[in-house]
Amino acid sequence: MINRIALAGCGNVGTALLEILNDKKKELDEKFGFEFKITMITDLIKGSIIDPDGLDLQKVLNAIHSTNSFEGFVKSKGSFAEMLEQSRATMLAEATPTNMETGEPGLSHIKTALGLGIHVAMTNKGPIAVAMDELTDLAKKHHAKMRYEGVIMSGTPLINMIHTGMAGCTFEKIEGILNGTTNFVLTEMENGLSYNEALEKATDMGYAETDSTMDVNGLDSAVKTSIIARILFDEKIPVESIDREGITEITVEKIENAKERGNKIKLISGIEHTKNGLHAYVSLKEIPFSHSLAGIDGATNAVTITTDNLGEVTLIGPGAGRRETGQALLADLVAMAQ
Predict the structure, then answer these.
(1) Are residues 57 and 206 in the same domain?
(2) What whole-number distance in Å separates Cα of residue 269 and Cα of residue 212?
(3) Residue 298 in contact with residue 187, Cβ under 8 Å?
(4) What are the pLDDT digits (tens) for 156-185?
(5) What is the chain's mean pLDDT, rounded?
(6) In whole angstroms, how far apart are CA 91 and each of 20, 105, 207, 248?
(7) pLDDT tops 90 at residue 81
(8) Active-site residue among 224, 236, 264, 266?
(9) pTM over the 0.70 mark
(10) Are 161 and 171 in contact (CB under 8 A)?
């Protein structure tokens, strides 16, 4: 069976997905039986192109790399639903920018696709954060699959590990570093840069957006913590109910003082059981050098999950990056096809 893929959002992550698909088309077929055609690509800036028989992926990538446009292709128009139907897509890869207040435009894209029985993979955490229940119900109603590995740790397969590798475990606690930008900044400050210098470097290297407010004030980590609470504990913990702080008040002096005490300062996200129920937080913590999270530097993410059957399990991997996040989309697409 040939999987017909529509891509919404052809920026860094969407383009990376196309590159991986193009590079590994033969390998994906031979190893996983994953045959595909890209039948639609839509982007807020580049426009929309459709071919139900499959777009020439190399030609698309050549146009993007040379002109950052869909030069040479006939642009398509119409509503998102009309274009999806015209493309005959069976899967949607949703990689539009995140809006944490409304979830748009990704939320509407996903609702439309699920309503048509089209499977959806996404890296956009906004729709999951604001409408997880609605989307889950819609997927069930229309017998469509929905996966979102990339919304928490980029390409590092945390959700897959929880759902499959840890099946049967009772989860007691999770603690981790969930934001690559803030961890990179703290690492660079340990190396002597000021907060502003470290943040500027993070932006230059592509780890931080031009507006990094969601990262540095802890909101991005809080959103991910809220999503993890649903996945791990099946509990709704609204983002606004999570105790949250960011890194904006951190100084090199505070980092040096912690180092003298044998500690490192990290922005830690966690969920734990208390006598009053689950407590979720995003907090600057001093942790000893011997702590499993102390050695996690740069844009790397890591989580330690405490369970009854396995004790502590720590997962470490990239928490940012265009190709890494594109890989999360690919893994979800292949899993849904299988």
Answers:
(1) no
(2) 18
(3) yes
(4) 999 999 999 999 999 999 999 999 999 999
(5) 95
(6) 17, 17, 29, 40
(7) yes
(8) 224
(9) yes
(10) no
CATH of the domain at 302: 3.30.360.10
Residue with tokens 């996200």: 269
Do residues 225 and 238 touch, judged by C-beta distance below 8 A? no
> From residue 254, how far is each of 259, 321, 338 by CA, in Å?
9, 29, 50
Residues 6+ positions from 306 with CB-CB distance below 8 Å? 171, 172, 173, 174, 312
Residue 123: give its domain's CATH number. 3.40.50.720
Report d(CA 50, CA 147) in Å as an integer: 24
Is residue 118 located within the same domain as residue 177? Answer: no
282 backbone dihedrals φ, ψ, rounded to 5°: -130, 115
Same domain as 199, residue 141 = no
Same domain, 175 and 307: yes
Which single residue is written with the structure tokens 């979830």?
A: 103
**CB neighbourhood size of 197 (10 A):** 14
**Res. 98 pLDDT band, cuts 50 70 90:** confident
Nearest to 128 by CA among 206, 239, 4: 239
Q: If you write DSSP's letter for every residue of 110-152 in order, what string do you get?
A: HHHHHHTT-EEEE--HHHHHHHHHHHHHHHHHTT--EE-THHH
Domains in the chain, number:
2
The pLDDT of residue 99 is: 86
Phi, psi values for residue 152, rounded to 5°: -110, -60
Helix and strand totals (H; E) in the chain: 14, 12
Nearest C-alpha neighbor of 305 from the set 113, 170, 119, 160: 170
Domain that holds residue 259: 160-318
**35 and 141: one domain?**
yes
**pLDDT for position 137:** 97
Cβ contacts of residue 196 below 8 Å, gap of 6+? none
Please give the biggest Cα pair distance in the chain: 63
Asked whether residue 249 falls in the same domain as residue 268, the answer is yes
Residue 224 appears among annotated catalytic residues? yes
Same domain, 32 and 126: yes
Q: Tell whether 299 and 327 lie within a shared domain.
A: no
